[in-house]
Amino acid sequence: MPPAGTLGNPARPGGERWRSALAIGLVITALCLFDDNLASNEAGKLALARQQVEPAWIPHDWYLNSSQGYQWLFQQLSGRIVIPLGFPLGSLVVRLLGYALWAWGLAGITVPLGLSAPLAALAAALFSFSQGVVAAEWMVGGAEPKTFAYATLLLAYAAWRDRRWWASGLYSGLACSFHLLVGGFGILALTGLALLDQGRRWNGAALGRWLGGCLLTALPVSLALAEQLVGKGHLAGGSPPGAGSDLPSAGWIYVVLRNPHHLLPSSWSWADWARALLFLGLLALGVVLSRARRDGDDPQAHAGHDLALWVVMSWPPALIGLLIALRDPQSSLLQIYPFRLADTLLMLGVWLLLAAGLQPWLRGRPARSGLVGLVLVISLAGLVRELPGAAAGLRRQFVASEPQAELYGWIRRATPTSALVMAPPSGFEDLSLQTGRAGYVQFKQIPTASAAIHTWYCRLTALAGDDRRVWEGPGGWQARERLGEAYAALTPPALLRLADHSGATVVITRPAQAGPAGWREGFRNGDWTAWRQP
Fold it and tell me: What does pTM read for this prediction?
């Protein structure tokens, strides 16, 4: 195999890479910037980041103070952005930084493939619509650690192809520091590439530089993880009603109950498996097309070959995960998300290789003009779809609805900073972020340490009136719906017992549900009622 980075070292900074990065960044910004702002995962990740940087912010929130050091670098970066700018503006800045880094990393792959800037942007746009195959994974979108981790992983791969071992190692370590699981699986895939390459690009000195770079930039997250493992800085929180020695395993809670869509292959439908087979076939088609009309020594053909191998090298953890899931669906080993990298890298590889296969037929000016027009139409359609909602969202600080924004405003005005707010088990992931008050528990926001996972389970069970039958049936979103129905059915005496045991000072219900017995109504609108202690 000829050395990587030939054809004028296309992976290195140059005019074409800058043009491609700009085109990719603009289309991703148009399609993703105002999608689900400060919702769900993003709300939790940014609140965790601020709490890690500013421990005095909400010191009594058990979830925000549970150590999640595997995202150390993202927390340090984004936390220092949202504190001075606030969460609405800060989240947009973090998103834009992530898009820019991801676009630059992707351009380092598209240029060696021979993709023009418009074609690279089109491939990125198509990828952005659906970024995972079966395990609901994604690379770029919200202000979250994965965007930065995948961006630096793309940079590590581009540097690896260009024989810049030290830079590849540094980027690999940075990926680990942004998100340990993404970076760790990425390093395994690059190691697999090295083994397949049979040493033609590697020697002792090159390996040493790569490992040195990895260790240098992964050191901070290693120290943060060591702190988590020894239990420092971890606030488990008190056990709510229903705690006992008969708790299910943390593996079952995390994998089967909370995250089957990510981690439990037996929960995936036949349509999901058919989709996986389809994209495996499209990957093979992309490999064939990317080598068509190119001779064996063509650098672009070699770039396609390397990309396909990198995709394949992301599969071993996923295959091992499948075997583990067949043997023990409750295994804690599944908590490391073995399908993560393979699920989204397969999707990205398919679009890039198909684009590379089409590139020889799209070299003329009419074809390039058509590509530019198509990318513009897609981007403008995305903006037209998102901007009206974005304008309304900005006015209410990206809270999901006006009634909920009114509720949050009352909590900020009428409660002390020491308040503990008990809310329905879903839909209030942004409560702490928007109000600066501690929340009791949310189904979406599960910690990672075993003790904290059990606390999460016990608190949610308490919201169901300590009736564990709520967990019978499918996990994931269906379990969340059953839990919400159980919370809505709690009687005033049950709510009072729960509030007394948890120490909650504010309880939120729907208007049709009576509050804790003896508590007074503090706020009411068409969607929500907030109850206060007398």
Answer: 0.91
